[in-house]
Design a protein that fits this description.
510 residues; Beta-Lactamase; Helix Hairpins; Heat Shock Protein 90; 4 domains; 7-stranded mixed sheet; 47% helix
Length: 510
């Protein structure tokens, strides 16, 4: 018996020496009331008290006044006694009054009779980690604020640029519908091309900013690749013909597949790849589109016979504002198209890669998830019936845009136009005259166009009148919000005159 007791005493002594020698952790024992009954070198290093100063005192001396007021020390012991263990992180107080971030574990100790004998408390100083986390969080918040500020700035700039561009492109399109002298038509075409180039730059900058701020959303659905390619080729063929480039489309049977994508965004990506393949091709060159299926993936490829790219520079190809062409090149570009395409494809859970051989050309591959889709055959749409004279109310404070739309509506015939430069006046005219259609700008001098739309939909007299929002704000979130309010369509300035005419004829016909 004496040998066993001696062995136990030796074991306790070795454990005591081991605990006292640990300097990275504060290890101390508490009696059932929380009084400190043992103290190690780690506790002295972390908390600043010597053993003589700490022993016999309540462990609440390490807590802030706020924690003491909340009764935290006693609460910890209650939980540890009930559950056997208590663990948390929080600010604690050293002897000199400075704070440190502590990771605390308290274990309850019970005797053979099940009665509590005290507590073992282990504390680790995690201040450096905590400060590093706070610094990281602050840096992240600062980056997010900067990103939001940039996005808001670009959104505002987009609106300010789109409003005058709407007038420039709109009047140019109206002029193009008239009989012009060849020199005049050429001037109009130059105006239109320059305006569309500037509009494209505004759109790309805004899209890129949305993606970087995590505000870009995509609507994924089954997209028929063959139909999408045909739409893109209708737009790209005139550009290719002008440059003498031959475009070869894939066989219909190969392109008769569906992929999960956002149709509008995928069209934007394919048009960018086609445009580049034509723009950077050699004279009398060829652009070839191919579609292949590999298991559950669909791959759409766009190949050109241009000068190709240096393999060492391909990693810069999808970086914003990087243009891998000579500085004296006459080819117009911003260096945003491929960067934006890469981010759009990423949002659609796809991939975009490139292969290039100097002197021979490049091939861009877009990979997407394959899926099944509905039959493309659509029912024939009945021609709209002839309509009597219609009344259109346009609420807009920009006189140039107001005059532009008045000229567009004049071309339709059988349309009377009312106008209002303030939202309140527009509401009065709508309630009094009950127009057949309301065109509404969102930025009005007296009230927001969104509030005008809400008031129109809330009033029995105007609830059923079709509303088309004409706005320079291009955010999809705003478009969705206005459509959810009950507006019938949302057109972004600058709009296509032909699309505007088609939409108005459709709504007036309905």
């Amino acid at each position: 018996m004496e040998a066993r007791e001696k062995a136990l005493a030796d074991e306790r002594e070795r454990f005591k020496l081991l605990v006292e020698g640990v300097s990275d952790y504060a290890i101390l024992m508490l009696d059932p009331e929380g009084t400190i009954v043992s103290w190690n070198s780690g506790a002295q290093r972390i908390k600043g008290y010597s053993a003589e100063e700490a022993l016999g005192r309540h462990f609440s001396i390490f807590y802030t006044p706020e924690d003491l007021e909340r009764g935290l020390p006693a609460h910890e012991l209650i939980i540890a006694r009930r559950d056997g263990r208590y663990e948390e992180e929080g600010w604690r107080v050293r002897k000199d009054g400075t704070l440190f971030w502590a990771s605390v574990v308290i274990r309850a100790l019970f005797g053979e009779d099940g009665e509590p004998r005290g507590f073992a408390k282990v504390t680790r100083d995690m201040t450096e980690r905590r400060l590093a986390q706070e610094a990281e969080r602050e840096a992240k918040e600062a980056a997010e604020r900067a990103s939001r500020a940039k996005t808001e700035f670009l959104s505002g700039m987009s609106h300010e640029l789109r409003t005058p561009l709407n007038a420039v492109l709109g009047f140019a399109q109206l002029l193009a519908l008239d009989d012009l002298q060849p020199q005049q038509r050429e001037a109009v075409e130059r105006i239109t091309k320059a305006g569309e180039l500037l509009l494209g730059l505004v759109d790309e900058l805004l899209d890129l900013s949305r993606i970087e701020a995590d505000r870009m959303t995509v609507s994924l659905e089954p997209v028929h690749i063959g139909a999408l390619i045909r739409e893109c080729l209708e737009l790209a063929d005139p550009i290719a013909a002008e440059r003498g480039v031959r475009v070869v489309s894939p066989p219909r049977r190969e392109a008769d597949v569906y992929a999960i994508a956002d149709q509008q965004r995928l069209k934007q990506v394919v048009m960018n790849l086609l445009s580049n393949a034509i723009k950077y091709n050699r004279a009398q060159g060829t652009v070839r589109l191919e579609v292949s299926v590999d298991g559950e993936r669909v791959r759409l490829s766009v190949a050109d016979t241009g000068q190709g790219l240096d393999p060492g520079s391909l990693d810069r190809l999808f970086v914003p504002f990087e243009r891998l062409v000579p500085s004296d090149s006459r080819i117009v570009g911003t260096g945003l198209g491929l960067a934006l395409s890469k981010r759009l494809v990423d949002l659609m859970d796809g991939t975009i890669t490139v292969e290039s051989t100097p002197g021979e050309g490049s091939v861009f591959h877009v990979g997407l998830q394959r899926t099944d889709g509905p039959d493309l055959d659509a029912a024939a749409v009945a021609e709209p019936a002839a309509r009597p004279t219609a009344t259109v109310l346009y609420v807009e404070d920009n006189l140039a845009n107001l005059h532009l739309v008045e000229l567009i509506l004049a071309r339709l015939g059988n349309v009377e136009v009312m106008s209002a430069v303030q939202g309140g006046l527009g509401l009065d005219l709508a309630r009094t005259h009950r127009p057949d259609l309301i065109l509404l700008d969102l930025h009005l001098p007296d009230m927001a166009g969104e509030d005008v739309a809400k008031a129109l939909r809330a009033d029995d007299a105007t609830r059923a009148i079709p509303i088309v929002v004409l706005s320079a704000d291009a955010y999809s979130s705003q478009r969705h919000r206005l459509l959810a309010l009950g507006v019938d369509a949302y057109m972004t300035k600058p709009f296509k005159v032909t699309e505007m005419i088609a939409l108005i004829e459709q709504l007036l016909g309905e």
